[in-house]
Amino acid sequence: MNNTPQPTAKSLISPVILFAATLFISATLMFVLQPMFGKLLLPLLGGTPAVWNTCMVFYQTLLFLGYLYAHWLSSRLGSQRQIQIHTALLVFSVIALPVALPPDAAPPTDGDPTLWLVWTLFLAIGLPFFVVSTTAPLLQKWFSHSGHHSSDDPYYLYAASNAGSLLALLSYPFLIEPNLGLANQRLIWSGGYIGLCALILVCAISFWRSQADKEDEDVLTDVGIEPPSTIEQLRWLALAFVPSSLLLGLTQFISTDIAAVPLLWIVPLTLYLLTFILVFSTWADRIRPWMLAAQPAVLTVFIAYSFINPATLPYWLDLILHLMAFFLAVMVCHGELAKSRPHPQYLTRFYLVMSFAGMLGGLFNTFVAPFIFNAVYEYPIMIVAALLLRPGFFNGKWFLQPIFPVLVLITGLTIYFTTEQLFDYLDLIGGALILLAGLSYSLRHSPIGLGVLTGVILLFTLGLHSMASNTLYQERTFFGVMSVRDTIIPDENQRPEKVRELYHGTTKHGAQRLTAANVTTPLTYYSRPGPIGQLFAEFDGENQHWHIGAVGLGAGALACYTKEGQLWKFYEIDPLVVEVAQNPAWFTYLSRCNKQAEMIVGDARQSLLKEADASFDLLIMDAFSSDAVPTHLLTREALQLYFSKLKNTGLLAFHITNRHLALKKVLADHVNELHLAALMQEFKPETDVPLVVATDWVVIAKQPERLQRLQQSRLGHWQKLPLTFGLQPWTDDFTHIIGIWK
């Protein structure tokens, strides 16, 4: 007989490795599920920001409810009852697998789809997402009772959870999306979820065995531990709310006001998750003093150049400054949050407050800020709030800290209201603000003084930019910040001329010359010398009664190609764009050239589904969100939809101008697979005509003979699309941004 002791299940694996691995996998699955299901919804509801905003609020709300459940379970019930209830929940949640849209899911066509979307999300992924969201606080609470030598401070396991989130965030666009279609992603995720449930049950067994010799009441309480005060919990709330809001504010700001680069949103979120990994790691105490010292130093340069005088920096350096300031602000806030974490007895309450604050940050940026601000003002507001949350708020004579900033504010307002021709002193005022930004470093040990002075500087900076930008109108919706500006440019004779421009963020979406001779001349990407102008010049005389659909309105320049007897329909997702383009106070293309054009508001793909088949002679695809075409308008299914709505001789004109993506590769692959014919022109203006810009267009038809007129045209150089090799076709199941990066 072998008398060698056999290893027990308890000793087979270290509790630290077991719990950390489970938390890591749980967070990975959560961060993969969010973009995966977002892509699954894309063909149904299109790429409207309202869809993604609703999804994010759903995720944050369910995360909060998961943390609330973990808090209730671990603080009210004994170990055996906790395991029984959570095991039942795990088993019950498996009925939702594999994650998929409900059968025959279709959004309402005659009303707001928000409630339908929330209900669909709940039916499809509600249970699995809820279970995954409970894992971080519940398993850390269980580990705190494991008896391991490090169980008295289980918060370092939160670093493992965020490491999983970070891995998933970076893996999805660069590894998962390029290699797996949505169908396979759903199946693999469902298998991973079953594996996670098994690991949670192993953790539950480990927890149960460690409590076998204890009464349930001993698991619930540690005698003599004072609960956190209300003030302390409100501080947790602020320290978690500000970074959450700052993350969303920075993401929107840099994506629209600095660089409309695909996948740029990943960078702030990566830094945000990295801060959690660092502040809950064993290096936190060594890192904290460096972060506190670096924040005001970087802030001085950041305010001076990125806000007061951003034109002096290349966009990439400006972007780096914003990201550095964001990272340091979040590091300080999350560092103070981690430093103030309570005894493990109140661990779930700590995470509950954190999740509630994160949900509030999302609700504020998504639903409150767009209605009270006409630009992304919540971003600078949260920069100031982060400074106020630095340690030492009530140190010394704290009430004296705001004296200098208040004097600066009073002086500035006095100058504003008493100085005539203030516009003549903009350079002097800008220099004074830069000097103040430098002086702000001297207040680094006074959070109130530093925060208030920074707020004063930003207030005057925003006013300065408003005076200098000649902005006539600015409004904000879910779709971003829309503005109308007047700009002075040289005309053909190098004389100054005023033109009206439409901007979405910093991307120009249309322009109009205001002189009588040029007021109906299409400009920018739609100029008569350009590809779309050549298309109309070649085919205009063919039929006086064309039915034309244009996806994307802009300032309405395309309307000036209208001929009497033609029927035009514009498909525009943002109602504000329609309002601006139809208002003669801003642009007069529509009022002068085509008052009868029909405006259809909504996602173009969903709107086109309702049109009669074989009804259009020409479809113009010009839908851009900032500087990118929504991917669901570029899939094979989308192209098949367009041609189902075109007559047999119909033409599809696709605007593909893009600084970062080679969209011609996607279209070339579709043309080849669907046996269509296509020509492309990468237009470069030969003369220095105002607002005639370089632009790329592709024209597609069912038969090559239909395009001979363009191919033989003397107006421009049309050529066949390049051959593509190794590009997996874009479908509603598969798209891959990285694969077409220039």
From TrEMBL:
The keyword Membrane applies. The chain crosses the membrane at residues 12-31, 51-70, 82-101, 113-134, 155-175, 187-208, 236-254, 260-283, 290-308, 314-334, 346-365, 398-419, 425-443, 450-468. Keywords: Membrane, Polyamine biosynthesis, Transmembrane, Transmembrane helix. CDD domains: AdoMet_MTases. Gene3D superfamilies: MFS general substrate transporter like domains, Vaccinia Virus protein VP39. The keyword Amino-acid biosynthesis does not apply. This is Fused MFS/spermidine synthase. It comes from Methylomonas rosea.
